[in-house]
Amino acid sequence: MIDYIRDGAEIYRHSFATIREEADLAILPDDVAVLAVRMIHACGMVDLVDDLRYSLDVVESGRAALEAGAPILCDANMIASGVTRKRLPSANEVLCTLSDPKVPGLAERMGTTRSAAALELWRDKLPGSVVAIGNAPTALFRLLELLDEGVGAPAAIIGVPVGFVGAAESKVELVEQAPAPYLVVHGRRGGSAMAVAAINAMASEVE
Ligand SMILES: C/C1=C2N=C(/C=C3N=C(/C(C)=C4\N[C@@](C)([C@@H]5N=C1[C@](C)(CCC(=O)O)[C@H]5CC(=O)O)[C@@](C)(CC(=O)O)[C@@H]4CCC(=O)O)[C@@](C)(CC(=O)O)[C@@H]\3CCC(=O)O)C(C)(C)[C@@H]/2CCC(=O)O
Question: Is residue 28 classed exposed, middle or buried when 0-12, 13-18 and 19+ CB atoms within 10 A define those classes?
């Protein structure tokens, strides 16, 4: 066996030093760079920076909302599970409605995915919330439809759905409409781990 690092803190130190050395973080505002480091850490791709687009106030707005007790609304249970509760500044509610028993029926009636239908159960909680979409492009499209219908806007949208069908398009739409402060990774890349990393950084690594 080769020797390998066994000390968790040392592994983190090495990882973050490598990211800071290899990623072009200087092109980002300081608070966005904090999120970018953790997102790169979650996926191993230092060129992620090239595809990041954001509102200048996304971190400030999301952080302030979390401090004020806003809920975190997630499209996938993987994201809700990954949010580190002890990092949250106000014991914030972390909610994924995908497994609610009402969702399969809603999806059938609406003729859409369960991921998109699950957002029907967000309506009351959306205004001022922090939204994390890391899996389903249809959830991001549906979020934009709800906001277009006049549902109150969230304080921040982490929009990083992944994949080959609708992911790139939904993120372009978010940036073009910009109904609330947002952060996206353009293109096919994204994922629940990336969304979680952004939320965990926003919750505890920026002031
Ligand atoms: C089309 C879907 C895609 N799923 C992707 C990638 C991953 N999905 C995983 C898992 C476990 C889940 N995906 C669902 C959200 C499920 N995935 C879909 C849908 C069919 C439609 C979403 C959309 O296109 O917008 C969606 C089902 C739905 O009706 O909404 C999931 C609910 C399926 C299920 O298990 O019931 C489930 C989420 C569970 C949860 O956490 O709550 C993967 C882990 C794949 C796997 O199981 O092997 C993976 C995770 C990726 C991530 O980082 O989040 C894509 C690639 C996003 C794909 C959409 C685009 C495409 O190109 O196909």
Answer: middle
Other residues' Cβ atoms within 10 Å of the Cβ of residue 22: 12
At 207, is the pLDDT very low, low, confident or very high (cuts 50, 70, 90)?
low
Residues with beta carbon inside 6 Å of ligand 1?
76-78, 98, 113-115, 134-139, 162-167, 191-193
d(CA 133, CA 160): 6
Q: Are 97 and 122 in contact (CB under 8 A)?
A: yes
Q: Tokens 């200087």 correspond to what residue?
A: 26
Residue 87 sits at the vertex; the CA angle it makes with 81 and 93, to the nearest 5 degrees, is 55
Residue with tokens 């439809």: 145
| 41 assigned to active site | yes
- Residue 206, pLDDT > 80, answer no
- Measured from the Cα of 115, ligand 1's closest atom is 30
Which atom of ligand 1 is nearest to 76's Cα?
Answer: 42
